[in-house]
Amino acid sequence: MTGIKSKHQTDLARCRQQIETKLGWGDSQGWSTQDFDRLSEEIAAHTGVALSVTTLKRVWGRVRYSSAPTQTTLNALAVFAGYESWRAWQQVPPEPPMGVEVPSAPVGRPTVSPTRRRRPWLLAVGVGAALVMVVLFFQNHTASRVLSPDDFAFSSEPVTQGIPNSVLFRYDATASPTDSVFIQQSWDPTRRQQVPKNGHEHTSVYYLPGYFRAKLVVGGQIVREHDLFIPSDGWVVVAEQEPVPVYFKSSEVIRDGALSVSAAALQRKNIPLQPLLPKVIYRNILTSLGLSNDNFTFETRLKVDYAEGSAACQQVRILLFCRNDMFIFPLSAKGCVGTLGLFLAGHSATSAHADLSALGRDLSQWVAVRYEVVNKRVRIWLDDELAYDTTFPNDPTDLLGAGFSFEGTGSVDYVRFRKPDGAVVYADEFETL
């Protein structure tokens, strides 16, 4: 067990070093919280997996934590480092230390003449090369073989209503030429779980609602995929933690005409606010809005309720969920816009390469946000000032709901979706009866 743990720690250290080299930000011991937040953004943009600043600080040893990282975290790190998965990363042999040379012959032994040792050496190389060629031939033949979806079956069924929810997958992959058979929970390639080739059932847990595109992956090929929709039946509110988030009841978060998780509510569940902020997520995924994401209006008003200590940046993300697509729009205190990045149905921008200064606001006060989308042109207004204007490239698709992600605590005053003619199709003013 000790050897396995040591191997795991060595692999993780190598992966961290690979990521540090890729980023070129200098010694990670000098990284600030903003650097880890920026790393979280870059990993999310590259892999689709949102790792919290707390999780990343644990991985980099900046926070004392006894448990090992989850498989989802390890896969995301490996994909960001440039590999298919954590398992693929573990197969990469470590490079020898710089400046260390392996002696050609043991010290103190007589040197064997080249004539006497040439033939066995050449024979070994020849046999090894032949074996490698044979293995590569069969691997390439298997990998290059195009598999027919007709030879496979794949379906799913949620076992209950609401969140969290388990989904029962039924599959038939007996026609697979390889044991590499995976069920992928969504579009995110790091959320794969290997299943037996000759098995037929597998169950996965979904902790948050959403639209997912589940896939059956055989030998690296997607042979079957289908839509998997898990609605929320109202607002789902959680404080993010691994592996299971902390859930809040509606009676705890809807009060005084707003959707809000207070600092006291977090403390009652033993969730500290310092020195590392919890990420609080609000999400409502609807069965149908009757809107397309290329023509609609979205309105909300929000503020940040806690800005002490490490919450000084007042960061919040507004998320609009679509069928197989998303809008992610961030806000922060004016001095922290250098860490922001956005994604609007295929259009992306980061503060490293674009002027996002208009997204900086005093979020201790209410900020009104309005999306106006007309024929894929997105204009986002903050307090009636145009803050961002672009056209997204992806094909139009259905709108499914909205969400908010606060670093710490925050309040939402209302949420409204409108048709292009201004007619309201959904509104929540968070009034209590």
Please describe what this structure looks like.
It contains eight helices and 23 strands. With 433 residues, the chain is of the alpha+beta class. The chain has three domains: 89 residues, no CATH class; 82 residues, Immunoglobulin-like (Sandwich), CATH 2.60.40; 193 residues, Jelly Rolls (Sandwich), CATH 2.60.120.200. The chain has an eight-stranded antiparallel beta sheet with strand order 9-8-12-21-14-15-16-17. Strands 10, 11, 13, 18, 19, 20, 22 and 23 form an eight-stranded antiparallel beta sheet that branches. The chain has a four-stranded antiparallel beta sheet with strand order 4-3-6-7, with no helix packed on it. A hairpin with a 2-residue loop joins strand 19 and strand 20. About 8% of the residues have low confidence.
Write the layout of secondary structure elements.
Blueprint: H1 2-23, H2 33-47, H3 53-59, H4 71-81, H5 86-90, H6 114-144, E1 153-158, E2 165-172, E3 181-184, E4 192-194, E5 201-206, E6 210-218, E7 221-230, E8 236-239, E9 246-248, H7 250-253, E10 254-255, E11 258-260, H8 263-268, E12 279-285, E13 295-304, E14 316-322, E15 325-331, E16 341-344, E17 347-350, E18 367-374, E19 377-382, E20 385-391, E21 399-407, E22 410-418, E23 424-428
Antiparallel strand pairs: 1-2, 2-5, 3-4, 3-6, 6-7, 8-9, 8-12, 10-11, 11-22, 12-21, 13-18, 13-22, 14-15, 14-21, 15-16, 16-17, 18-19, 19-20, 22-23
Helix pairs in contact: 1-4
Transmembrane segments: 121-138
Keywords: Membrane, Transmembrane, Transmembrane helix
